[in-house]
Structure formats: C-alpha cells, structure tokens
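#struct-queue
[09:14] JT: dropping the first one here, sequence first, then the structure tokens:
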Amino acid sequence: MVQKGPRPLVLCGPSGSGKSTLLKRLLKEFPDKFGFSVSHTTRSPRPGEKDGVHYHFTTKDDMVAAIQRGEFLETANFSGNMYGTSKHAVDEVRRTGKICILDIEIEGVKQVKTTDLDPLLVFVMPPSIEELERRLRARNTEHEEALKKRLETAKREIEYGKEPENFHIIILNDNLDKAYTELREFIAQNVEDKEEGTESNDSK
C-alpha cells in the first residue's frame, strides 16, 4: 500500500439510504479535495452506468484471480454478485493528495478495519425500513424477490451500523440537506485534525 495523502473516508449504508447522493454532492462541491475509489463488481451495468466511472465491471473468474493475487483491500458478495476495492484504485486517488472516498458494504468495512488504511467510518442511516422500501421500489430496478433480499440485508446492515464503535459517526438521512451538512462538518473536523497531527509527527 502507498501511504500517501490524507486519511480515507468510508461511506457505508443500506442500498437506498442515500449514501450515493451524499457522495455525489460532496464530489461536486469539492472536486479538488475528494477522489472516489472506483470499486470492481461482477454485476451487469445498470442503465447510464459507465465502466471505470461508476464501477470497474469485470467477470467472476477475473475477480477471483485478482483476489488470489492479493490485489484487493476488501471484497464482498451481495445479491449474488461480487464487489471489491482494489489497492490500485485507492493508491491512484491517494497519490494525488486527495481524500479517497470508499463506498463499500458492511463486509468490506470489517475487512478494511484490519488493514493499515485507518479510514474515517461513516454510516448513513435511512429514516426507517418502510421509507427504505419505498425508495427501493421507486427505483423500479429489481424483481420482488431481489427487493426482499435487499431489505433483509438492509436490516442486518442497520443493526451493525447501530452497534457502538463500529463507525465514527452515524448520519440519519431523513433530510438530505441536514445529512449533508452533518457529513461536511464531520469531515472538516476530523480530516483537518488528522492532517495537523500527521505534519507534527513527520517533523519529529
């Protein structure tokens, strides 16, 4: 791993919690400060998704081989597909000096915690399971069975997110503007503190 650049930021939360919307807003407002680590996945692209932008779309055989070569920081299986963050994707962002943002699942969070990344961990909480279901149904991207699996997974993710010390902050996304303000303030306080600490350590 290349240990350059400020502390990475991990955004985690159930599908439909709004983490992707918060992420897009952050990248749009601060394009020079943040860089997105593009994950790999074996699922097919959804309408409008571009390879190398939203995900690196790959095959199961290729991804398994890359994992065996030790090229991934974290991997997870979700709804029958594989997802993962490659070391190269994170290194590419960190070399620029930008704050690297990872959008990963719970299993990925558990794995990243065992690495030397030392990321800031943010959990985005939906207002309720009922609201989450409404948002997922509004997408109209999945069959009923797949939707039920996502909701079951979301319940487990929320339980993990609520447990003390699993994340540095839990942001309740019942109002997007409020949630975004909370995210910005958390990053400003923690990233600046960390960078100042790093500079003083380097000068010793």
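[09:21] JT: and here's the second one, same format:
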Amino acid sequence: MNSLEVDALGFAYGQRQALREVSFACPAGQFSALLGPNGAGKSTLIALLTCLYRLQQGQVRVGGHDLRQQPRQALARLGVVFQQSTLDLDLSVQQNLHYHAALHGMPRALASQRIDEELQRQQLGERRDDKVRLLNGGHRRRVEIARALLHRPRLLLLDEASVGLDPASRLALNQHVRQLCRDEGLAVLWTTHLLDEVQGGDELLILNRGRLIAQGRADQLSAEHGRGSLAEAFSRLTASEVAS
C-alpha cells in the first residue's frame, strides 16, 4: 500500500514554474530519498505536501486521503521534520512535545504515555526536563522526530533534516530514521542534496529545475547512468536536463 501518492503536481510562483508534472509514490516501509541540487524544488514540494502552500495543479493522497478534499484526515497520517527547526528553545523537551500533542487534540494521559515511549526510543528520556537550547543539533533533531511521531503517522517527511549537523551526527540521524522505517513500517521521504545520505537499496527520486528527471532504485540508476557511481549518474542526469 502506498502511504503517499503524488500525481501530476505543478506549482508556480507567479510566472516562475517551480514544479512541473511531478508524479511518484512512497509505499509503506520504504525509505525514499528525494535528491536534488539547491533550488530544485524540494522545499516547494514539502510545502505543498504539508499544506503550507495551496495545491495549484495535480493531486496528493496521504494514506489514501485526498489532500485537497480531505486535508484533516490526510495530515493526521503525516509527520514532518522541516529544514528549519520549529522547536521553542525556552521550553523543555517535554513541554515542546506536550504542546504538539495538544494541537492534535490528544488527551493528556495518552500524550504523556506516547511522549515517554518516543523519548525512550530516541534515547532522550534523561533529557526530558532540559530546555531545548541546551541540546546539541543532533538531539534537537531527535526531539523533532519524536514530536512528528506522537500521533502515529504512516508517512514521515524530512526536509533537509541533516542541515547544520556534523558528519557523525548526520550519519547517526540517517541511520536512526532508517531503523524507524524498518521497525515501524513507516514510509519515509527524506529530501537532501547530499549524495552520501542515499543508499543503494533506496527508492531514489531525482528532482531538478522543478522536474522529476529520474526515479528507481539508487543502485540501478547508478548502474544505468553512472557506471556504478551515484555521483556520476547524478551529474549526468542533471547536466542533460539543463542541456535539454
């Protein structure tokens, strides 16, 4: 079953077309990597999937629910970690999570139970009473992932979630999300411009200049377009798109 289905999505900022006829799906339990250079349209796509921007063209379904016709049901099945942190630095970890749970209408007792579960899973149980500003970048991202999972979504979107982290923290975060995908059957859409965050078995979507120019298993795309090298495949595909 597909947790996310995007069909012929288009979006323009005035006369500038940011996305053109973008179509793809993210099945349950699959780590999908959306790769593209800066300015490719990745953040615009995330803004549309999360209703920050109004849909102009095309259709989006989350967990089978149409985002245009059933936004509340669709968004209830969606967890998001944005590129820019949206945590309140002067609240504790626990207070940030309780605030999010309240926005979702979650009863206090249930919220406390799920917060305990998520903090343990993120290995942050001992930091629950710390103010967020005392955490390092990697731990802040884990708090945001815990927050995104409180309402039990089936799709987790991460928009350049590793930006600003050191290499070790980037790797740890990437591995952690993959483990969640395997353990919980989550569909994950991980957007990045960093090639080392993509693994051979990932479903890879390459976005450039607003177009989805390639999709398939990362290792297969590497073999077909880059003689086994993802970097070469990415370079060739984006170069040919610019040339055309």
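[09:30] RK: nice, looked through the second one.
[09:31] RK: Residues 167-184 form the longest helix (18 residues).
[09:31] JT: good to know. The mean pLDDT is 92.
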